[in-house]
Amino acid sequence: MPGPCPALARWNDGAKANITNSVTTLERLYRKFGYLVFSTEGDGLAHLDIERSHPPVDMAAIQEAKAHIATSSPASTRAATPPTVNSIPG
Q: Higher confidence at residue 85 or residue 49?
């Protein structure tokens, strides 16, 4: 692998890391798809690299959280039920 790009010398460490990561991603996607893919959107390549862009969803944790919310707060039950004329105070 070639050494660091001399043009990176003018950038701070955070910018260098972002530039290097972006170019590495472009190279990896080129090798994977055979095309140079470019997007001006911040997340424009996310759908091509979903494994790296979004961690797997822990469905068990989501179900556990929903169960906890449903059983821990009477307000959550009231919020889910729209008010009726008879339930409005006054």
A: 49
